[in-house]
């Protein structure tokens, strides 16, 4: 039996959150099949949840631990995305070479542009969280969210065309996304493009580096047509990216002489950032060689572990929520996972799988779901109230279907939350509730005693039929 001190250390370790680690085979240490560590790692592997690499190292060193069963609550999260200029700012912080740039939030920020940013050619980019900017169209009719020019005056005018307009691309809503920031950067003179990505990979049970000398294009196409141009290197979580590994990657990317040393150093800086910011992906495409003998990360896509928000507060404070559905933002404050849709039946469900099944069966019976809403496994009455407030804020919702299977969730808690929410917001649309599982009898009695016009359903099929019939 481990000492109290060891138990406390393990408890603290598993409260430390995470750079994503989807599975674990990094050590020959064997854990008892009912141990806390085994159960946690197994669940992390099955569900693709996050895991903090330094924590993992410590767990391996601790060896066998508490021989007790455990349950782990699995709940998805909304992922943080950064704008392009924010990613470049982060790269700069960790000594990764990027092109010089400025960010304009208002047209005056581009005054004296040639003095602020000395460049032979400027690239002007609207900053939104969507692809296809180059072929996008603004609500003013102006075409293109990415432009090149050698004239600083024209660059300033381009900023004026983009700021405070809505940019519409294939990846945005129909009315587009507001452009609150425009990045003006020096255009990089590219001699050769390569590809580099560090990410957590389920197949390799941890962090890997994927590299290709064929960069600047869709890496999936490269892998399909010329697989010999793809190199995948698993990274040992104890050693990290060694000099030998960095040099090997730089050589595979066809960097020569001094450029090989520079590329290797850039790769090590990228790995350091990957660890320090709790990233799950750092993709550089293209990772380029310039005629001036530089190695530059021209474009970056960085994915973060949202569970690490509590210790990456500086990074998460950079999130721009103006582009997000305000209902999603509000739901995220209460650990609710909400995605708005175009239907008319609001859904409140526990578990992503059950939520999707509920949406499917609503569609089967001829109606459409208004949303995806997963309340998770640790939901409390206050969260149920917030969920109802979010659902009823959608004017398209003509009925609400609650479908809860109580394993970890206490059905009585859900029922009390439903009653409290209905009374507080004076619900004006039909409410259909299907509850099953933990404390279901007590939950049904709570609903019955409330005196509210709540329609109970015996199963999901019955619930969907009643919801569709009520609209």
UniProtKB/TrEMBL annotation:
Required co-factors: Mg(2+)
Residues where substrate binds: 350, 407-409
Entry GO CC: mitochondrion; succinate-CoA ligase complex
Chain sites annotated for binding Mg(2+): 285, 299
Reactions listed under catalytic activity: GTP + succinate + CoA = succinyl-CoA + GDP + phosphate
Cofactor note: Binds 1 Mg(2+) ion per subunit.
Classification via InterPro entries: ATP-grasp_succ-CoA_synth-type, ATP_grasp_subdomain_1, Succ-CoA_synthase_bsu_CS, SUCC_ACL_C, Succ_CoA_betaG_euk, Succ_CoA_ligase-like_bsu, Succinyl-CoA_synth-like
Molecular functions per Gene Ontology: ATP binding; GTP binding; magnesium ion binding; succinate-CoA ligase (ADP-forming) activity; succinate-CoA ligase (GDP-forming) activity
A biological process term (GO) from this entry: succinyl-CoA metabolic process
Keyword rRNA-binding (UniProt): no
Record keyword Magnesium present: yes
Cellular compartment(s): Mitochondrion
Top EC class of this enzyme: ligase
UniProt cross-references to PROSITE patterns, sorted A to Z: SUCCINYL_COA_LIG_3 (PS01217)
EC number: 6.2.1.4
Superkingdom, natural source: Eukaryota
One Pfam family hit: ATP-grasp_2
Pathway assignment: Carbohydrate metabolism; tricarboxylic acid cycle; succinate from succinyl-CoA (ligase route): step 1/1
Location (main, coarse): mitochondrion
Keywords for this protein: GTP-binding, Ligase, Magnesium, Metal-binding, Mitochondrion, Nucleotide-binding, Tricarboxylic acid cycle
Function field: GTP-specific succinyl-CoA synthetase functions in the citric acid cycle (TCA), coupling the hydrolysis of succinyl-CoA to the synthesis of GTP and thus represents the only step of substrate-level phosphorylation in the TCA. The beta subunit provides nucleotide specificity of the enzyme and binds the substrate succinate, while the binding sites for coenzyme A and phosphate are found in the alpha subunit.
Family to which the UniProt record says this protein belongs: Belongs to the succinate/malate CoA ligase beta subunit family. GTP-specific subunit beta subfamily.
Subunit-structure text: Heterodimer of an alpha and a beta subunit. The beta subunit determines specificity for GTP.
Protein name according to UniProt: Succinate--CoA ligase [GDP-forming] subunit beta, mitochondrial
Organism of provenance: Daphnia magna
């Amino acid at each position: 039996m481990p000492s109290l001190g060891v138990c406390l250390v393990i408890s603290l370790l598993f409260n430390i959150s995470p750079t994503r680690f989807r599975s674990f085979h990094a050590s020959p240490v064997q854990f008892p099949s009912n141990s806390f560590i085994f159960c946690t790692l197994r669940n992390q592997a099955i569900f693709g949840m996050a895991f903090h690499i330094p924590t993992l190292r410590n767990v391996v060193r601790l060896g066998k631990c508490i021989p007790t069963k455990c349950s782990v609550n699995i709940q998805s999260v909304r992922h943080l995305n950064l704008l392009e200029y924010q990613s470049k700012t982060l790269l700069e912080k960790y000594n990764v070479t990027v092109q010089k740039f400025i960010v304009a939030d208002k047209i005056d920020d581009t005054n004296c542009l040639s003095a602020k940013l000395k460049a032979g050619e400027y690239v002007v980019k609207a900053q939104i969280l969507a692809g296809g900017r180059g072929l996008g169209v603004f609500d003013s009719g102006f075409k293109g969210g990415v432009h090149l020019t050698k004239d600083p005056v024209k660059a300033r005018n381009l900023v004026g065309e983009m700021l405070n307009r809505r940019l519409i691309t294939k990846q945005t809503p129909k009315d587009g996304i507001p452009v609150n920031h425009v990045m003006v950067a020096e255009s990089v003179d590219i001699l050769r493009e390569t590809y580099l990505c560090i990410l957590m990979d389920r197949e390799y049970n941890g962090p890997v580096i994927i590299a290709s000398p064929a960069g600047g294009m869709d890496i999936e196409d490269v892998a399909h047509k010329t697989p010999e141009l793809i190199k995948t290197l698993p990274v040992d979580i104890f050693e990290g990216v060694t000099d030998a590994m960095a040099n090997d990657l730089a050589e595979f990317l066809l960097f020569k002489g001094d450029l090989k040393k520079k590329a290797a150093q850039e790769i090590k800086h990228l790995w350091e950032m990957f660890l320090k910011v709790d990233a799950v992906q750092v993709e550089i495409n293209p990772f380029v060689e310039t005629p001036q003998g530089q190695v530059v990360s021209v474009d970056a896509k960085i994915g973060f572990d949202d569970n690490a928000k509590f210790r990456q507060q500086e990074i998460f404070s950079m999130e721009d929520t103006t582009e997000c559905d305000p209902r999603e933002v509000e739901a995220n404050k209460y650990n609710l996972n909400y995605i708005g849709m175009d239907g008319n039946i609001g859904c409140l469900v526990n578990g992503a799988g059950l939520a999707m099944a509920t949406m499917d069966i609503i569609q089967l019976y001829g109606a459409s779901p208004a949303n995806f809403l997963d309340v998770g496994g640790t939901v409390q009455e206050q969260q149920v109230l917030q969920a109802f407030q979010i659902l009823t804020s959608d004017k398209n919702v003509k009925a609400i279907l609650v479908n809860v299977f109580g394993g970890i969730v206490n059905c009585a808690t859900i029922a009390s939350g439903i009653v409290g929410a209905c009374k507080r917001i004076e619900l004006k649309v039909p409410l259909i509730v299907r509850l099953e599982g933990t404390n279901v009898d007590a939950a049904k009695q709570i609903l019955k005693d409330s005196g509210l016009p709540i329609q109970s359903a015996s199963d999901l099929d019955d619930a969907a039929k009643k919801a569709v019939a009520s609209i």
